[in-house]
Structure formats: structure tokens, C-alpha cells
Write a structure and sequence with these properties.
11 helices, 4 strands
Length: about 450
């Protein structure tokens, strides 16, 4: 019995010694996947030196007007919510290491003495069930750790997608504000001319009132544009992890305008291949299925015997000179009332539920990709029509009205009205280009599985 106990202890120590913490905490896998899927770097600063290095790189990027790729890189380096998600790696690794270690042995002592007679029982026992189940339990914990790594990659991808959309919205809001300021200036000029002409007796109150209405509408539009620009800027700043003081002294510098429309559209990718190979969320669900399958196997393995403790014991009954009697102690749960059928049925139901949810998620992923591509195509068609048809027509109208004004065929107010309409059409074009790039970002997110759930 002593030899068996010794071998059991040595085996337990050997298995427990295999479970240890990695140097990177699982972060290198996340960083590598981020470079593959997004071509970007992520950082998990865990010291003052690491934080200083990240701050220096962020400051370097902020020193010039940001492109959308610069903005995404800053977010992946500096967003503190993302840093908090990286801590999930530490939690999952700790659970994995813990799963690779046996519970401590249990020592039981019963001691009684009277009139020089002793009744002593000492038992050192081990949880044999935990020892036998350790490979499977540790394997499940390893699967959960891998799931956590993929889950963090998915969060990184979602942050990148959100940052892209916020960047396009912020740049478009600034461009729109610039053009609406021109509209307001034109309306202000018209209103002032109307006041002067009425004062000189050359105009009536009705026409002046119309110009005042245009002016007030331009004021409202400008106020809304200023609020939209501030809101878009604040959202982008939050995603970048910046405070108003960080981009000083010049403030947050963005690209002067949105990127130009591409020459053509990308073809709709193979939806089946995208779903089966590229979607991070479905890969995560497949890993969860594997984990549940192993949990079901573990539940079935421990269905009848849920407690099994084995250990060495020694007993003394009699005077102090009486030698100890050596033996062993075995404790197990007798499955009389609970055969474990309910636990097995629950595990089977959980696994079947996960299978159905995965099938539905794959179905929805295909639909999501098709819908995102339709939005991408439509947004491109609208923006291209605005650029190639509407804006040239507005330019032609403006040129013809200028000629008519020079020939005294129309007055200054008609010319100012046309200027307002032309600026408004440019603002519509900016919005259509913004919508296209956001639609492109949403398509990329749908293909990667990083669209908002």
C-alpha cells in the first residue's frame, strides 16, 4: 500500500508540474492573428516602460493628419477597454493552469485517550477521481484558453471596424461643416442685401421675408452640422483612447477629405468559403462545440462515481507502546438515489443547443454577407451618380446662371440661391461618399465576422 501511495503522489506531482504560466500570457497568438487579419499591431503594456513605448508611438502618429489606417492603429494600441479585454487572457490562463493541478491531499486525524489507552486514526488521502479526470479537465481548460484568445481577436477586429466607421463619420462631418458654413455665408449675404434694398425702397417685405427664412434655415443647418461634427469627433476620440489634452496643441488632425471612390467594385466573395474559413465568430462557436463535446464525455465518465478518495491510514488502539496498524481508506459515492442521468441529460441538451445555434449562426452569417454586399453596391452607385451626374449638372447650372447674371437676366438673389443649392449638393455628395466607405467597412466586418452582434 505504501508503494502504491508513493507512486500515486509522484504521478500527481509530475502532472501538476506540467501546468505552468507562459511568458506572454497567450498574447503573442492574439498579436499574430491581428497582423494576419488586419495588418495591424496590438500592444498589451504591463509595465511603465511598455506604456511609455505605446505613448511614444501614439504621439508619433498624432503628429500629422491621421489617415483611417493611422486611426485604427492608435485605437488598437491605446484603447483602454481593449486593454481590459486582454486581461481575460490572464484569467483564462490562470484557470487552465489551475485545471492542471491536483487538489491538495487531505489529512484526517482522530485522537482519543483515556486511562493510558489511545484510540488514534491518521489518514492521508488523495482525490483519485480528480487524478483520473485530470487529462480531460486540463484539455477542456486548454480549449477555453484558446477560445479566449480567439474571442479577444474578435474584439480587436470589432474595435478596428468601429474605428473605421467613426473616422469616416468624423472626416465627413468636418467637410460637411465647411460647406454649410459657405451656405450660411451666402444666406447671410442675401439677407443683408434684402434688408438694404427694402430700406432703399427697392424691394418688398415678402421677398425680404423669404431671404430671412433662407438665412434662419442655414443657421439651423449649421448648428446641427456643428453638433454632428463635435459628436463624431468625440466618438472617434473615445475609440482612440484619447483625451482632449493629448492631441494638443493642434487638436486632433484628420485627413482633409474622405478617400476618393474606387474605380470599381470588388466582386462578391464566395460566401460559403468566407463563412467556413474566415468568420472569426463561427470559428469561436466551433471551438465551443468541441469544448462541450469533451464536457459531455467527462460528465458521462463520472456519471456513477462522482467522489473517489483513496489514501493510506494508520491506527493505534491501546497503550502508547502498542504499534500502529497500517492500511488504507477508500471513500466513494454510492449511486443509489442519483445515477447521474440528469447531469448527462443536461450536458446532452447543452451540446445539442450549441449545435443548433451554430447552424443558425452560419445561416445568418451568409445572409449578413449578402446584405452587406448589397449595401456596398448601392452606396457606390449613389455616390458615383452624385459625382458623375449631379455635381456636373450643378456646375453647369452655376456657370449658366453666372452668365445670365452678367447679362442682367437674373439678379443677385437668384445667384445666391443657386450658390446655396450647389453647396448643398456638394454636402450630399460628401454624405454619399461617407456612406460608401462605411458600407465597405461593414462588408469587411461581415466577411471577418467582426460586425456588431
Amino acid at each position: 500500500m505504501r508503494h502504491a501511495t508513493l507512486l500515486m503522489v509522484l504521478a500527481a506531482l509530475g502532472l501538476a508540474g506540467c501546468a505552468g504560466f507562459s511568458k506572454d500570457g497567450g498574447f503573442n497568438t492574439v498579436a499574430a492573428a491581428t497582423r494576419v487579419h488586419m495588418g495591424k499591431d496590438v500592444a498589451w503594456p504591463r509595465s511603465g516602460a511598455d506604456r511609455a513605448e505605446v505613448d511614444a508611438r501614439v504621439a508619433e502618429l498624432l503628429a500629422h493628419p491621421l489617415s483611417v489606417e493611422d486611426a485604427v492603429q492608435i485605437a488598437l494600441l491605446n484603447n483602454r477597454a481593449l486593454q481590459a479585454e486582454f486581461q481575460e487572457l490572464g484569467i483564462a490562463e490562470a484557470e487552465m493552469v489551475q485545471a492542471g493541478r491536483l487538489p491538495n491531499p487531505r489529512f484526517d486525524l482522530r485522537h482519543a485517550a483515556a486511562a493510558g489507552q489511545y484510540d488514534i486514526e491518521e489518514t492521508l488521502s488523495f482525490n483519485m477521481l480528480a487524478l483520473l479526470a485530470m487529462p480531460l479537465v486540463h484539455g477542456i481548460a486548454q480549449q477555453r484558453f484558446a477560445q479566449t484568445q480567439d474571442s479577444v481577436v474578435l474584439i480587436v477586429a470589432r474595435l478596428a471596424a468601429d474605428t473605421r466607421e467613426a473616422f469616416y463619420a468624423a472626416v465627413a462631418a468636418r467637410q460637411s461643416l465647411s460647406y454649410l458654413q459657405k451656405v450660411r455665408t451666402a444666406a447671410d449675404t442675401g439677407a443683408e442685401l434684402a434688408r438694404r434694398m427694402v430700406a432703399a425702397g427697392n424691394w418688398n417685405r415678402l421677398d425680404e421675408a423669404r431671404e430671412q427664412v433662407f438665412f434662419k434655415a442655414a443657421q439651423r443647418s449649421l448648428a446641427r452640422a456643428q453638433l454632428a461634427e463635435a459628436s463624431a469627433n468625440e466618438r472617434l476620440m473615445r475609440l482612440l483612447g484619447l483625451t482632449p489634452q493629448q492631441p494638443e496643441p493642434a487638436g486632433l488632425q484628420l485627413a482633409a477629405s474622405l478617400p476618393e471612390l474606387p474605380q470599381g467594385l470588388e466582386d462578391l466573395p464566395d460566401v460559403e468559403q468566407a463563412v467556413l474559413q474566415n468568420r472569426l465568430d463561427l470559428r469561436l462557436m466551433r471551438m465551443r462545440l468541441d469544448e462541450l463535446k469533451d464536457e459531455l464525455k467527462l460528465t458521462k465518465s463520472t456519471r456513477f462515481v462522482n467522489v473517489l478518495d483513496l489514501g493510506a491510514t494508520r491506527v493505534r488502539q491501546g497503550p502508547r507502546e502498542q504499534p500502529y496498524e497500517h492500511g488504507y481508506a477508500l471513500a466513494l459515492e454510492v449511486p443509489i438515489f442519483d445515477s447521474g442521468a440528469a447531469r448527462v441529460r443536461k450536458s446532452e441538451a447543452i451540446y445539442a443547443q450549441a449545435v443548433d445555434r451554430f447552424a443558425q449562426a452560419a445561416h445568418e452569417a451568409r445572409s449578413q454577407i449578402r446584405l452587406a454586399y448589397a449595401g456596398y453596391r448601392t452606396a457606390f452607385d449613389i455616390a458615383r451618380q452624385q459625382r458623375d451626374e449631379v455635381l456636373p449638372l450643378r456646375q453647369t447650372i452655376a456657370q449658366q446662371n453666372l452668365l445670365r447674371y452678367d447679362a442682367s437676366q437674373i439678379g443677385i438673389f437668384e445667384l445666391l440661391s443657386d450658390a446655396r443649392e450647389q453647396a448643398a449638393s456638394v454636402d450630399d455628395y460628401i454624405a454619399s461618399v461617407r456612406d460608401f466607405w462605411i458600407a465597405k467597412s461593414q462588408l469587411d466586418a461581415a466577411l471577418l465576422g467582426s460586425a456588431a452582434p
